[in-house]
Design a protein that fits this description.
By secondary structure, the protein is α/β, with parallel strands linked by helices. It has one domain: 3-Layer(aba) Sandwich (Oxidized Rhodanese, domain 1). It is 30% helix and 18% strand. The chain has five helices and five strands, in the order βαβαβαβαβα. The protein has a five-stranded parallel sheet, with helices on one face. Strand 2, helix 2 and strand 3 form a beta-alpha-beta unit. The longest helix has 12 residues.
């Protein structure tokens, strides 16, 4: 089972897991229209790689991320990032899903609406 955290828990997670990275799996259009998380401002190296690409896993592997690194997956509202985390877990990566994503869902406000740094 993949661990779930909300955007409001990200800063605390990073403090306790400083080697974590953020992987935003939304589309380029979403990044351009809705904005992007600026994880670097809270000590979270951030990558942007859409899950809609059929080469998602191969493209991820090209990033050279160590399998011991905690990967926080994020999408718009938590569904695609959960799917991305499931794919990465099968490849033996460690993942935690940001369950409310960048824009939030019916349960939590999301990264952008929680006041976390965005571009």
């Amino acid at each position: 089972m993949i661990k779930q955290i909300t955007s409001n828990e990200v800063k605390e997670h990073v403090k306790n897991n400083p080697q974590s990275i953020l992987l935003d799996v939304r589309t380029e259009e979403e990044w351009n229209v809705d904005g992007k998380p600026d994880g670097e401002k809270i000590g979270l190296k951030t990558y942007f790689l859409t899950i809609q690409d059929e080469n998602f896993i191969n493209d991820f592997k090209k990033l050279g991320i160590n399998k011991d690194t905690e990967i926080l997956t994020m999408c718009m509202g938590g569904v695609r990032s959960q799917a991305a985390a499931e794919l990465l877990i099968k490849e033996e990566y460690k993942c935690t899903n940001v369950s409310d994503g960048f824009l939030g869902n019916s349960v939590s406000p999301g990264w952008k609406n929680s006041g976390l740094p965005s571009k």
